[in-house]
Amino acid sequence: MSEPRLSAEAKAFLEALIGAPLGDEGLWLEALTHGSTGESRHYQRLEFLGDRVLGLSMAQWLFELGTGDEGRLSQRLNALVSRDANAQVAREIGLGDHIRLGKQAHDDGGRESDNILGDVMEALLGAGFVTHGFPAMSALVRRLWGDQVLGKVGQSKHPKSALQEWAAGNRRKMPEYQLLERAGPDHAARFTVEVRVHNVGTAQASANSKQAAEKLAAAEFLRKFG
Known about the structure:
The protein has helices spanning 8-18, 25-32, 44-65, 70-80, 83-93, 103-107, 114-132, 134-144, 146-150, 159-169, 210-225, and strands at residues 176-183, 190-197, 201-207. The protein is mostly helical. The protein has a three-stranded antiparallel beta sheet, covered by helices on one side. The termini are far apart.
């Protein structure tokens, strides 16, 4: 059996994305490959590396912008490197069309999964770091995340923090979060969470991760009762 190779379409997509020849094509193939394919080389190791590349690139950028104290910078950083933010960037560049999935993951809608899109986006940064170095990937981050950094992402208070402050300010017990349901396969899981404030009420929300569901539930609670 022949070794898998990058398709012509994927190669053209990646070269246009990074603005340079790929170098080690096998590394980029690995970055696009989901574990559901059964292949020994898939994106998880590169995702681990790319997560750090993204974090350092973003931290340096926010530091240069010179806005906010450490707490404010950390709040923005966490929002800008979150899975939601990464998945948004991946959708904007059309990354989903080039991800290599096994049949089941494909049938389960893996190309639209925030988890997979965000992870592969980080894996591409990892592959780019290995083949082209940090300055090239930092420049890519600034190009792809520009709208989010220069916009409002991460500038408003996190809903869970806002709900805690609301509860304290209204002399209520701290919010309690409960996972009501986890549905779907690992690569396309759906979490439903309920948040409760004693003697006030409850709110529920669903998302592709438990953390995202808690965030949405807190926002919904504040909408209903805040």
